[in-house]
What we know:
A: mainly alpha; B: alpha/beta; Rossmann fold; Hypothetical protein af1432; Beta-Lactamase; five-stranded parallel beta sheet
Amino acid sequence: MTLKECYAALGGDYEEAISRLNSERIVQKFVLKFLNDSSYDLLCSAMEAENYEEAFRAAHTIKGVCQNLSFTQLSDSSSHLTEVLRSGWSSENMPLMEQVKRDYQQVTEAIRTLQTEIEGK
Amino acid sequence: MREQRYKQKILVVDDSEMNRAILSEMLGEEYEIIEAENGVQAIALLQKYESELSLVLLDIVMPEMDGFGVLSVMNQRHWISEVPVIMISAESAFTHMERAYDLGITDYINRPFDARVVHRRVVNTILLYAKQKKLIGLVEDQIHEKEKQSKLMVDILSHIVEFRNGESGLHVLHIRMLTDLLLKKLIQITDQYQISRADIALIGTASALHDIGKIGIDEAVLNKPGRLTDEEFAIMKTHSMIGAKMLAELPIHQNEPLVKTAYEICRWHHERYDGRGYPDGLKGDEIPIAAQIVALADVYDALTSERVYKKAFSHEVAIQMILDNQCGVFNPLLMQCLREIADTLQEELRISAQAGENQEEMHEAVEELLLSEDLNAPDRLVELLDYERTKYNFFAEISQEIRFEYTQTPAVLTLSAWSAERLKLPEVIMEPMHDEKVLAISGNSDWKNLKREILKTTPQNPVFRYTCEISLEEETKAVQIIGRTIWSGDEKPQYKGVFGKIMDV
Lengths: 121, 505
């Protein structure tokens, strides 16, 4: 799996990321690093604890990171979630959180595949 | 091997480790990156490095304290004029951007950012700030040099007059200092004359020219020992008109304020408030205030100096003679000024004469700069303040006092490194009145009483003292808290915060 194929699998825009960050090496480095980012765990635990202020910040951080890496799909869903959390959470918005979860799984699965292949080489 | 060179420091403030890492990757080659993961950490680092930082890259949404909180503190502590801030945020709402610009940021970069754009903007901002600082320094040096030159020319010119006059070179210096002291007192007691600080400097310089007309007086009359005959006195009296005429006939510079003021002083510094002076017999405030002041200064200095025809009177006798109207009649307001500065006058003249004028000038230049609103504090001033701060910190550390600083919005308590260690608290604390560790230091009622003491202060009486017990290193200790509240300079002063120290009793 190439980095480009990984982007296709995770719902991101490979060309845009390369053009903004200016180097395949840097993009790959940070894509792999995304697995260690704790914002998603923070988002889940904050939602669990019904601490919506913290959940807002965590969703906001995920949105920012995804924008930087051009993870378009997760960026969009986390952006929606951010706006909902900003104006006040209600349980009918739960599908948005589910969407973020699905998109996040998709992203991390794709990156893990890429990681395994790189390490296997 | 690559040469190790000094790298400028950039503070990156972002709660996401990923985002900080991406920025470090982009800029780490050329700059030293210091990272903070929330606003409180950023404040602590700003406090530590202050003007050593070349730039701050600041996120908005963060835990503990957000980017706007950081900007507020940077404004209150005047860091914003020293360190440029570029805001980087995923917030694209125009209101956020506008608010950030209002708080003094230099640039705003939206996420997702482009590596080249970030790099360019960072480099540009740092270069622009460096250039601006250099330019301010250059302008300042030039102003300084120019002022020095023109003062020098005026001094030489007035010395020529005195030289011919056989007077000591100190006369002009004394007149200038007296004029200055009287004017400063005058604007304290009345705003009737609308004299600005710039006017005071101008009148001071122009005062040196009050006797230039004397170069048109025959030396035999000018330097005659003993009393002048009526005829000789009439000749002597023409010096004020001669001086005025010389200035009025200057082929150029007619519209210069200095020339206009000098003209008034030359022509009318022998008028009397009761209308019995010369050359025009002006009365009361028909005589321009600059001329009234110089006339008074001239009389005082003449009385306290030795002349060919008289001995010097003591300061006390001279003041008494003037106040008794033995040496002319002056504006009652100026009499009040003289009375009020009489006690310190002698000492001030002595100190000024010893210190030389440069120091006084430098001091005033700094004061003017502090007051001027359109110029940010230039390097020289910053250095001066840095020096004072270092000195203050040093003395405070060796005296082992607990010092604190508190700003109201955002509510942030800052402790010196040593104090924080002693109290076992962080150096920067958000919302200290809701912080358990802070509250645990003293009893509940003490905090309430302290707050009451603070609320009792006013801009006129900003100092408060409060004695209480605090727990320090697992012991209960009686201490006195002395502090001063800070107020804004608005017409209706707003409470801004407190600084102070805690001392053992």
